[in-house]
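Q: Joint fold for the lines below.
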Amino acid sequence: MHYDPVLAWESMPTLLAGTATTFAVLLPVLVLGLLLALPVALMRLERGGKAVFAASYIAFFRGVPSLVLLYLVYSGLPQLSVVRDTFLWTVFSNAYFCAWVGLTLTHSGYMAEIIRGGLAAVPPGVVEAATALGLSPRQALFRLRLPMAARYVLKAYQNELLIMVKSTSAVSAITLVDLTAAANTVFDYTYDPFTPLVTAAAIYWCIVNIMRIGFTMADRKLNRHLARG
Amino acid sequence: MNAVTQIAVPSPVRRETPAAVAISIRKLNKFYGGFQALRDIDLEVGQGEIVILCGPSGSGKSSLIRCINHLEQHNSGTIRVNGTELTHKASDVAQVRRQLGMVFQGFNLFPHMTVLANCTFALRLALRLPAAEANDIAREYLARVNVQDQAAKYPSELSGGQQQRVAIARALCLKPSIMLFDEPTSALDPESVGSVLRIMEDLAATGITMVCVTHEMGFARRVADRCVFMEKGEIVEEGTSDRFFSAPSTARLKAFLQQVL
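A: Joint structure:
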């Protein structure tokens, strides 16, 4: 078993096409997951029915394996006539759409908990100061609490994001050829598992480390008030 | 005793309130669950008056001052600020808060914003002033509390006294007619206490109305028009600062003063 640079070079177009699919799955999931997580996190901080709903949402989608969720969305939902016999079929027959739905739900469960933690860490006195200065609850949320929470959760979000990058490989189970699936295809054709998989791992490594550098830069900018003093 | 004299004796004609009342509190009650933090509080603060609230911890001083700007919701009774009754309606709350500036024990500056941005934050968001105008106002008040040189720094780079002076400037930027201070020097080292108290004395001389919870009895004696002593959620005694310190009439205030002076 050895690494074959020529095969690696020749399979690069296949692997890069897989990388494109990985991003096509990942980016909408990151945006939608964040948008969905925000109201869930806010509900989680309230009392009563909303908090119970949010807690159940988080518990459910963090608990269900994302691979199982993908199968359920892609293969399970079309078993229901309400999906199969209506306009829903047009969207749920699309593997990308199902990947977005499944991974977004998982991602939003984790993100809701991260955002909740960040908001809970904002000192109440600072919010009171803003309130006493005449900011509305809405302004206090969007202009103070969330910007402060974003600074606190940067590290946790980085973890979640990097794990998400690699979790997208689950989508090969519902026919999408992402980076991992592409590497596996090369293995199938060449009987060389080592070269394509190590190359794919290297590509993941590059993606993850570019993101890490991005986070370091964001941290330096957003948390510069902690660097001094 | 006969009924006729009782009816005939006229009560002395006395003006109920000074001409201009800044804060008027009547029969105020505040509960935290089953615990009553404030019990039938009656208090009036005239415009331009400097009122000091003192008393042992847990006596309700902070609760009272926090009820005035609705950081705590009172359960019954009325609070009027410059004529506006403070109900739990958002519009009333907003109108009352516009009259009030608040300074906290823990400064509560926005840690991720520069000193200047701390001061312009509410000007830009609550008053929707353009940035340039907000900056001018902020610099003016930062100069007034002697921290103009720190405008570009973050709160964590400042001493406690400087931070509290920034907090005072931040509140003054909105030009409140009444300033509320909730133990503004309790979290400071002795050196910083002096710098903050001097700013507050300067402020008192400008004619602004001040309600201040403090344990600084020397400051109270010098600056206060009136001192109010609270214990267990009630006002036990109030009076001009002279009489309050030299001739307290209740045993409880006497005991308290003996401990703190």
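Q: Anything notable?
A: The longest helix of chain A spans residues 12-44. The CA atoms of residues 16 and 179 of chain A lie 7 Å apart.
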